[in-house]
Amino acid sequence: MKKICLVLALAALLALTGCSDSTELGNRAIIQAAAVDYDGRYHVCAMLFSSSGSGGGTIDASGENVIRVNGQGETLSEAIDDISLVDGKRIYMCETKLLILGGGFENANALDALKTLYFDLRCSLNMPVCCVEKNTSAEELVSLQFTEGITSADKPLSLIENANNMGVSPKTTLLDLLADNADGKGSLLPMLTIAENGSGMTNSNDNKTAVLSGSKGFSEGYLRSAYNKEKTAAIMLISGRSDKITLNYFLGENERTCEAYCVKVTDEEYHGGSIRRVSAKFRTRSGGHLSADERKAALSALAELVETV
Fold first, then answer.
1. Contact at 8 Å (CB) between 125 and 173?
2. 23, exposed or middle or buried, with CB in 10 Å at 0-12, 13-18, 19+?
3. How far is the C-alpha of 167 from the C-alpha of 184, rounded, in Å?
4. Facing residues of 245 across strands?
5. Between β-strands 42-49 and 28-38, what pairing exists: parallel, antiparallel or unpaired?
6. What's the rounded Cα separation, in Å, for the pair 44 and 59?
7. Residue 148: pLDDT band with limits 50, 70, 90
8. Of residues 303 and 19, more confidently modeled
């Protein structure tokens, strides 16, 4: 009898605890995407989903549940606290899908901010991190209201994931940045920029949208050199971050496309210098075989690509 009473008491306690957690989560503002710029002060622009929004507690693809809020402060924590004051709720970043580093981090160290996101704000180590092109603020990019996806982070995140699957751009997480820094290595961040001719992709009247324009190096806490799309793809192959790429090549005057996979790039000593050797397997986009002439042309194009770095 005592055992039965104990089990019932524990069950009741767990039920009460669950209700308490649910209420607490309902009183928080859930950030979907966050942009951080720095000019001596941290400026944070966040797109957040609030369960008390006009959507009646459900995620609304029209964006009625998603609001843009801004905060600033001497530290990232202060800027996030400033957002809490604006929204009236405690910020919840465990579900943040994308972090965008913007202007200022070429000259200011971002490591303290990244550590704050993990240790203090409980961001997932699997949260992807990207950056923006020069003269573009992160706030501008996160403010675009994409018509695709349920939340504000879905479209730029799908751009990054699709390019990474094709082997032409990195997908870099918070864990990658912290681990690479601990090992004294550099990282590579996908770089987004704002472009026009995105009719129907956003709710913007000027047809602006976001596109991947290359990458930036990140080391010792600073954003480094920017690379265009071609050099980014080459760096991916040379560094071993990828072993595949969708490749355009010419056979005579005709441009063709194939997939290069099992790509290996090695630099070998040769007569006091070095020579870069490239090997790969090739197939058509539908998985078919290439002729000998096609393979030769594709390998030549691949060798030209990796020589850009």
1. yes
2. exposed
3. 24
4. 260
5. antiparallel
6. 23
7. low
8. 303
Q: What is the band of 142 on the pLDDT scale with cuts at 50, 70, 90?
A: confident
Report pTM.
Answer: 0.82
Residue with tokens 């020589």: 307
The predicted-structure confidence for 238-264, as pLDDT tens digits, reads as follows 999 999 999 999 999 999 999 999 999
Contacts of 240 (CB under 8 A, 6+ apart): none
Q: Where are the domains of the chain?
A: 28-236, 243-306
Q: Which residue has the tokens 């200022």?
A: 104
More confident residue, 281 or 150: 281
- Please report where in the chains the tokens 């690509």 appear, as a residue: 305
User: What pLDDT sits at residue 87?
Assistant: 62
Q: Both tokens of residue 93?
A: 């970043």
Name the residue with higher pLDDT: 20 or 217. 217
Buried b (16+ CB within 10 A) or exposed e, 221-251: bbbeebbebebbbbbbbbeebbbbbebebee
Amino acid at residue number 179? A
